[in-house]
Amino acid sequence: MNRATSDSKTDIGPGNNNIRIYHERQSKQLCALHALNNLFQSPKAFTKHELDTICKELAPDARIFNPHRSVLGLGCYDVNVIIAALGKKGYDVIWFDKRK
């Protein structure tokens, strides 16, 4: 485990056949960032700066309060940021609402 970033790689599979799983542990309110990096199995798939930029793109007129992240800008990104981030990597998201 890398203590500086709380990242880890774990061997899995029968006999640990060199299958490595990248996992970023939760830090602050950056769960969307960690989930995306875990999904892409890379600590560099996305950065906080990139997600903040997406927030600005989603709400270009928001000067003080951006509805797509926490008021203090510490993370807590909404699902629209995750969907837009995945779109930038060429992936589509199908929204599923169990209530319907």
Automatic annotation (TrEMBL):
Catalyses:
Thiol-dependent hydrolysis of ester, thioester, amide, peptide and isopeptide bonds formed by the C-terminal Gly of ubiquitin (a 76-residue protein attached to proteins as an intracellular targeting signal)
Q: Which UniProt keywords apply?
A: Hydrolase, Protease, Ubl conjugation pathway
Asked whether the UniProt record includes Lipid biosynthesis among its keywords, one would answer no
Q: Which residue range or ranges hold the Josephin domain?
A: 18-100
GO MF, one term, reads: cysteine-type deubiquitinase activity
Q: Which InterPro entries match?
A: JOSD1/2 (IPR040053), Josephin (IPR006155)
In terms of Pfam families, this protein maps to: Josephin
Domain of life, per the record?
Answer: Eukaryota
GO BP annotations, alphabetical order: protein deubiquitination; proteolysis
The EC number on file is 3.4.19.12
Matching entries from PANTHER family are given as:
JOSEPHIN 1, 2 (PTHR13291), JOSEPHIN-LIKE PROTEIN (PTHR13291:SF0)
| Protein name according to UniProt | ubiquitinyl hydrolase 1
Species: Aceria tosichella
